[in-house]
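TICKET #2291
ISSUE: user wants both folds in one file
ATTACHMENT 1:
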Amino acid sequence: MHFTREIQRLVLLFALAFAGIAFSAAYWATIGAETISLREDNPRVIEARSRIQRGAIYDRDGALLVQSIPDETGVVTRRYRFESTYSALGYYSLRYGTDGIEALYDSQLSGADQADDLITFFNEDILHRPRQGKDIQVTLDLEIQQRAATLLDGHKGAIIVMSVPDGEIQALVSLPTYNPNTLDTEWERFVKSEGNPFFNRALQGNYQPGSIIHLELITAALINNFNLTTTYPNATQSVTVDDVTLTCILTPPATELTLSQAFTYGCPAPFASLIEQITLPRLAVTLNTFRNAPRAENTPQTTQNTPPAFTLEDALGQGVITYSPVQMAAITAAIINNGNAPQPYLVIESPATVRPTTPITTPEIARQLQALMRLSVLEGTAQPAAHAGFDIGGQAGIGYAGETSHVWFIGFLRLVGNQGFVVSVVIEDTNNTDLAAEIGGELLALAAAENQTP
């Protein structure tokens, strides 16, 4: 009997062991399988990701910008073909993830948005073929993009070139930047690099407008029925706000100026007087309208400071009010688009998406602003932007931040009707407005030449 009981215990022990094994096998084959597949350190998951054939990225004319190249073992390398496009496209890394366009359209590029159907199951789970992503086409024009990157090379800053009225961004440059082809090996160096190359200044940068805000002050004057031909004595004197002294950008021919002339030469004193006449609360209405200008669609953004109450410093462009280069491009686009700012965007979609515009000002005021900006190119701060045979208007300005300064140029090239191109240039650590205006004018002329119908 004793022997029989021992046999029964042994049989029961084996039965329990087999039951545990069966339960464990069933769990890992069903529920647990998904848990394992979600682990970032699962070698099979890492291997599968390394073989994903991400979609290619093409420019507006079909030029190949980014491709996925598999080696003999099937492991894929993401190849970025043009240095000029690095800051516009972002990066993809198996180790560090995605950023920029690569991040925003990751589901399409990686194929993660594919339907979970029988064909996908057969290809990926039965035949173990790598997932195939979809190609995307961006609005960038490679030639304009390359020229913009060359012109800004050696400086910190950003450039946006955009077509009007559709809002297509044909060039987007932010410098300094990084090389996504060497991201895995140079990540630590990039992270510690001076100038924060991972920060996209064109889309996320918030810069004080400085004297570029004169455009908004002129708009406020027109809205409030001020006469732009009224003269202001001592118009060339400096204006001190906080610890910054503002002066004329270009020496005018006289010390008594109208508001139009003050805009042309970038003189702050008449605008300081104008602010007192309009009053800050009334002026805030116009400034808030401009601050609502759209940023780029579906792109990373940073928040803007909203002052509890506008100050003279804010109204003269030296306070907490800031703009990104892409916002400045949208504002400039409104001036040749009947006062309506188009929505900037970077990726061409099919079917085409109808994008709303944002009202900035009236068509009549927009036409008056065009005339002022043309005059600035003819004889004012934006003269280096002039190109014979083109209808170009612009404004150059200086902003101050801490112990340094940055320069702006915003400009348009008008074609037929409300069609044309706009440019927004910001360059850090300089007060050379001629440089920004020269860059802007060259890119506007190139954009017009590139988009001419043969």
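ATTACHMENT 2:
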Amino acid sequence: MSQVSINDRDFSPEWNFTSSKSSGPGGQNVNKVNTRIELRFDINKSKLLSEPEKEAILKMPGNKINHAGELIIVSQSSRSQLKNKEECIAKFYHLLAKALEKPRPRKATAPTRSSIAKRLERKKYLSEKKRLRKKGDY
């Protein structure tokens, strides 16, 4: 079976949206209309993610996942509920793609001769400077 890209999967049945009053732009409209959108996605209950994918997402750094294993994404940058909802969805797919991308393996490298020589030269210079600071025979 071929691996389906995160962007090709439809997570919409598993999203839970809530709206509340925004602190963003909108003037007096802010006090009347619920434009702040919060997307909640229960990682553990997802049927579209495999177990290794769930583990990778739960290990994501940051504070977007609560103790219940829910990914919470908030948007309140626009005056429009629809635009904020679209922004939440875009953030969701971006976060999942970032969490699931494989890190490039680090290639071990050895220091060059010149870098070793520069380091030793700097150490000699600093030790000489400290030696000259000491009180003693002049």
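RESOLUTION: both attachments delivered.
EXTRA DETAIL ON ATTACHMENT 2: The chain has a mean pLDDT of 85.
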